[in-house]
Write a structure and sequence with these properties.
alpha+beta, Rossmann fold, PAZ_dom_sf, Piwi, RNA binding
């Protein structure tokens, strides 16, 4: 999945960023009685136990308002499956929560590190002002918010002076640095707030947000003081692995207080943290630089000692200096106490042999001489750069050690992804065991911060009854149907429902001289015959082009352009129906992006790339999978759901237009790129063929800017296809909008802006279809495990189709967790669906089955996928935004964006993101496929 999506879907409301307040609405009435025995139907709260588990009236009390759709009832379809959820009951007796604003060193514009802020607050209440905080242990989020269960007896000026260090100053030494902490009470949260909200008896408001945030801060206070942390997770080195490129990964733990139906719970999960590798800085720097430059040349200490190699120095600075935030200690330190970690500010062009400084007693000395005199150490690499670790402090790289537990805050190096995933992947029983064992590390019973709020966490996870939905039957050619089993099916002997036509005109380009292609061509022809994809010539136009050791960028563009022109001339001026390209064994992304740009944009020809190492070993199944992609790129349709399974979705008299939408934001370190928004839309009655649109928009803006235009064009395409191909002309009666990547705090924005834009796009066609808007969320930490071994699939996961819409879902709004795919590796993650709007008033079973059915029509797979196909397509289109720019143009645009040119105004300051005139430049160089190529599913 692409990086940098939206917020954390699992716990955005507890993150300290208040969501939008809820609007008005009327209740839908109560739903069916509870399923299963032993659960009360009335979620009343006890004084000590909070709200009891079980259902109250569906949708909550009459006065309760919501953002999303009120829950219309609970689903009943499917057979029951007992599961364990990684959620632990949380109880908290009613009490007043006191909320304080925190200011540290007022007037100091420098933002202090979170770790230092936490240490100062901890020192303030546990040592310096222990008597004041004896009755009210305070929980602090590291920035502005502090919470207690008792009022703090504040001094008149509300100021607390706290020293930087615990240790007293050395005799005759300077006094300890003091920090001023100012506390101001800003709110008191009334008792029973969360209890009533979980019971469905009150609306979500600012008090609910503050109360839940206070609980989360209390949960995280103790581990955040002890371990490296990152927002909602902390990490320990009890389990860690060196993955290369200067990185190691640590096992960590995610925890978040959440509300369920009639109860509160703590969601606990396993997390993985990427850290700078501990140990000698020189070794780590070489590993990092070597991974960056690749195998083109070897990085050694000797090459880093070349003082005229400024390019390498700048690369080293990017890896460990400035924003990288690497802290080191002097390995040779002989002073009293432990050496203080120092932050690397710069990698300097000076060396230990050339850098000189003035001694306090007079005279000058080089850094090399000082190291020898002070530590009796002869530097091995005196010609290597120095690092600046303070205003006037410089250290040789070879005597620095990287301290453990420093989080890597940038994008994961591509070469390390496989190793990190191997470490992070756990089979379901192992993951559940790790989660249950985490109670020993989380130490809920020993935390004075939880004790201050009388919060108690039950150390046994919640067990509940999930349901397994029946998979939809799928239709192939000649009215053949298939019933998926365990989220998969075999189409052997079946032909596509709507095969495309090739008419003997296809080309094959071999870009790897070492590959023998006879078997590959035969396999493609046989795969086409088996699936019904056109008449493939046994003797296609074959060309061999060696791209090994050839310059990339414009050189390869010109070479491939010349090859294409020559092939057109040889083919009597005709373009091919499909161009198949065999990529080299050492395939790189730049070559792939070049071919896709040329094929989709410049030549307007469908292209199908294959990697030589896979195609050479390809069997009949491999080439059948290639045909899954080829057929839809040529305008065909592979499979559709049986209309009898989803009559609401495939009603010819009331056709549905299905849209999937997503955004991809610049990854860390790519600030000078815009956000790209993609919308795909169905064009056929069977909601299986889609049209894609994408545009750049302002950096890091999640709400889709031009959605009314997207919608208008989607309706144009829908009407054109149905009129010209299906020979029917009625407009869409329903519009179903699947939106990926938005956090809970952005739901109101989606309703206010995106749903309004959908209606505006429809208004431009003078139609008003019934709109259903559904948020598709993957950024959460809810996992479900089969309680009985015999109920699991072959991977140990819950079977495909497992759904939960009770107990750990929202107290009043219509949401559910659906695991629509069969497990392969590790623990499967269910998808979280939240229904923001439903003008069709579907029942719970209808809408849940609609989502499940759309997970089975992802056209390039014979397995159900984890999210509905239109959402998956939008995700793919977003992730391939680079294919829409001429090769080399992205680098040029980013370089221009950061130069303080005309886009930065007269000051020449570096712009913060892509907006205004600069965004217009990005749009000018961005291209979408045209004509028939644009109407096909080129992105497959």
């Amino acid at each position: 999945m692409p990086p940098q999506r939206g917020g954390d879907r699992g716990s955005a409301r507890g993150s300290g960023n208040p969501p939008y307040t809820r609007g008005g609405g009327l209740p839908r009435g109560s739903g069916p009685p509870p399923r299963g025995g032993g659960r009360g139907a009335s979620p009343a709260g006890g004084a000590q136990g909070g709200a009891q588990a079980g259902r109250g009236p569906v949708g909550g009390a009459a006065h309760v308002t919501t953002i999303a759709v009120r829950r219309p009832g609970y689903g009943t379809a499917g057979k029951q499956l007992p599961v364990i959820v990684n959620a632990f009951p949380l109880t908290c007796p009613p009490m007043t929560i006191f909320h304080y604003d925190v200011v540290i060193n007022k007037g100091d514009e420098q933002k202090l590190p979170l770790r230092l802020n936490l240490e100062l607050i901890d020192r303030m209440q546990s040592k310096t002002y222990r008597e004041i905080f004896a009755r009210c242990a305070a929980s602090y989020d590291g920035r502005k918010n502090l919470y207690t269960a008792q009022p703090i007896p504040l001094p008149e000026d509300r100021k607390f002076l706290v020293p930087r260090d615990d240790e007293p100053p050395a005799p005759g030494g300077p006094p300890p640095k003091m920090y001023t902490i100012i506390l101001t009470e800003v709110a008191q949260i009334s008792p029973q707030t969360l209890e009533r909200f979980a019971a469905g008896l009150m609306s979500h408001d600012e008090n609910v947000t503050t109360a839940l945030t206070a609980m989360n801060v209390a949960l995280r206070m103790l581990p955040n003081l002890r371990y490296p942390f990152n927002i909602r997770s902390f990490y320990t080195d009890k389990e860690f692995k060196n993955v290369g490129a200067g990185l190691e990964v640590w096992r960590g733990y995610f925890q978040s207080a959440r509300w369920g139906v009639g109860r509160l719970f703590v969601n606990v999960d396993i997390s993985t943290g990427q850290m700078y590798q501990r140990g000698p800085l020189l070794n780590i720097l070489i590993d990092m630089m070597q991974d960056t430059v690749g195998q083109n040349r070897r990085i050694t200490p000797e090459t880093l000692c070349q003082t005229n190699n400024d390019r390498d120095r700048m690369l080293a600075h990017k890896q460990i200096g400035g924003t990288a935030g690497v802290k080191v200690v002097n390995r040779l330190w002989r002073g009293p106490g432990k050496p203080q970690p120092k932050l690397i500010l710069k990698v300097l062009p000076e060396t230990a042999r050339t850098a000189r400084f003035t001694l306090r007693e007079g005279g000058e000395m080089t850094v090399e001489q000082y190291i020898k005199q002070t530590y009796n150490y002869n530097l091995r690499f005196p010609h290597m750069w120095l690092v600046q670790v303070g205003k006037n402090s410089k250290l040789p790289i070879e005597i620095c050690d990287v301290i453990p537990g420093q989080l890597w805050k940038r994008q994961t190096p591509p070469n390390q992804i496989r190793e990190i995933l191997a470490f992070a992947t756990q089979k379901p029983p192992d993951r559940l065991r790790s989660i249950q064992n985490s109670m020993n590390i989380l130490e809920y019973g020993q935390s004075q911060y939880l004790e201050a709020f009388n919060m108690k966490v039950t150390e046994q996870p919640i067990k509940l009854n999930a349901r397994i939905l029946d998979a939809p039957r799928l239709m192939y050619g000649n009215n053949a149907t298939i019933a998926p089993r365990d989220g998969a099916w075999n189409m052997k002997g079946k032909k596509f429902i709507r095969p495309s036509t090739v008419n003997d005109n296809w080309w094959f380009w071999n870009l790897d001289q070492r590959a023998r292609i006879d078997n590959i061509v035969e396999g493609l022809i046989e795969g086409a015959k088996e699936t019904g994809v056109g008449q493939w010539d046994n003797n296609p136009l074959v060309k061999l082009e060696n791209v090994h050791n050839r310059p990339q960028g414009m050189a390869i563009v010109q070479k491939l352009d010349q090859l294409f022109t020559a092939c057109v001339k040889e083919n009597q001026g005709n373009k091919p129906m499909i161009l198949v390209v065999l990529l080299p064994y050492a395939m790189n992304n730049e070559l792939y992006q070049t071919i896709k740009y040329l094929g989709d944009i410049r030549w307007s020809v469908p292209t199908q790339c294959m990697q030589a190492n896979k195609a050479i070993k390809g069997n009949a199944q491999y080439f059948a999978n290639i045909m899954l992609k080829v057929n839809v790129k040529l305008g065909g349709v592979n499979v559709i759901p049986d209309r009898r399974n989803v009559p609401f979705l495939m009603d010819p008299a009331n056709p549905s237009l299905v849209l999937g939408a997503d955004c991809i934001h610049p990854s860390p370190g790519s600030e000078m790129r815009p956000t790209f928004a993609a919308v795909v839309s169905s064009v056929d009655t069977n909601v299986s063929k889609y049209y894609a649109q994408m545009r750049p928009q302002e950096s890091r803006v999640e709400i889709i800017a031009d959605l009314a235009d997207y919608t208008k064009i989607a309706i144009d395409c829908f009407r054109a296809y149905r009129t010209n191909v299906e020979k029917v002309g009625n407009p869409p009666a329903r519009l179903i909008y699947f939106r990926d990547g938005v956090s809970e705090g952005q739901f109101q924005q989606v309703l206010d802006h995106e749903v309004t834009a959908l209606k505006e796009g429809c208004r431009r066609h003078n139609i008003a279809p019934k709109i259903t808007a559904i948020i598709v969320g993957k950024r959460h930490h809810i996992r479900m495990f089969p309680e009985r071994v015999q109920d699991s699939d072959r991977s140990g996961n819950c079977p495909a189709g497992t759904i939960i819409d009770d107990e750990v879902v929202h107290p009043t709004e219509f949401d559910f967790f659906l695991q629509s795919h069969g497990g392969l590796l590790g623990t499967s993650k269910p998808t979280h669906y939240t229904v923001l709007l439903d003008e069709s008033n579907m029942k719970a079973d209808e809408l849940q089955h609609l989502c499940y059915s759309l997970c089975h029509v992802y056209q390039r797979s014979t397995r159900s996928v984890s999210i509905p196909a239109p959402t998956y397509y939008a995700d793919i289109v977003c992730s391939r935004f680079k294919n829409h720019f001429e090769p080399g143009m992205l680098t040029d645009l980013e370089h221009t964006s950061g130069q303080g040119s005309i886009f930065s105004g007269s000051t020449g300051a570096k712009p913060k993101g892509v907006t205004g005139e600069l965004l217009g430049t990005w749009k000018q160089h961005f291209s979408m496929p045209r004509d028939s190529q644009g109407r096909a599913m080129y992105f497959m």
